[in-house]
Amino acid sequence: MIGASHAFAATEGATASKKIHYRGGLVVFAIPEPWIEEYEPEGGGIFYQPGEDTATLRLNVITATRPSSSGALSGKQVLSSIGYPASEILSNGNAISKGIRRGTERGTPITIFWWHLVNVVSPQQVRVATFTYTVFSSSERSASTIAELSFVEDSVRSADFTPDGGKH
């Protein structure tokens, strides 16, 4: 898994998926069946296929509230206010912005694909789910990475937020 002591290899061909109910269902999305799930005590999830030199999917969620006197929030407004004016409203009502960053980790070039997914909980409250998918830059254009990236993007775009915040 990239970003830790091990890494994450791309999924070959069609793979069975499993639903992740992150933090009790706060966000629900799919990952390939063989991937490992790890959760950090203070928040955040890490998902990866077992093995060396594999990619890593990370998720962090924040909930933001503003005073009721400020007017209603929209997902596009939230993304614009945090520096991501290029966004799209999805068919499920969530707003999404995405991009790519490149950097190095321990001297090795890496590519980070990211998505900010905004769900309006109420006129004054939103949830922002940030997904990142990190690969070694040398494998960024491989057929297996492209296929896995397509799976991840589809999963992010179709992610659901639980109305009650995952508290069951």
Describe the overall structure.
With 168 residues, this protein is mainly beta. The chain has helices spanning 75-81, 143-157, and strands spanning 17-22, 27-32, 36-39, 45-48, 56-65, 88-89, 95-105, 108-122, 125-136, 160-161. Strands 3-4-5-9-8-7-6 form a 7-stranded antiparallel β-sheet, sandwiched between helices. The chain is globular, with a radius of gyration of 16 Å.
Q: How many strands in all?
A: 10
CATH topology: Protein Transport Mog1p, Chain A
Binned, the helix content reads: 10-25%
Biggest pleated-sheet summary: 7 strands, antiparallel
N-C termini distance: 31 Å
Count, helices: 2
Average per-residue pLDDT, rounded, comes to 87
Strand arrangement within the widest β-sheet reads 3-4-5-9-8-7-6
Helix and strand element order: EEEEEHEEEEHE
Tell me the name of the CATH class.
Alpha Beta
Category by helix and strand content: mainly beta
Task: State the low-pLDDT regions, or none.
Answer: 3-13
Shape: globular
Within CATH, the superfamily carries the name: Mog1/PsbP, alpha/beta/alpha sandwich
The value of Rg in angstroms is 16 Å
**Annotated CATH architecture:** 3-Layer(aba) Sandwich
Domain module count: 1
Strand content: 35-45%
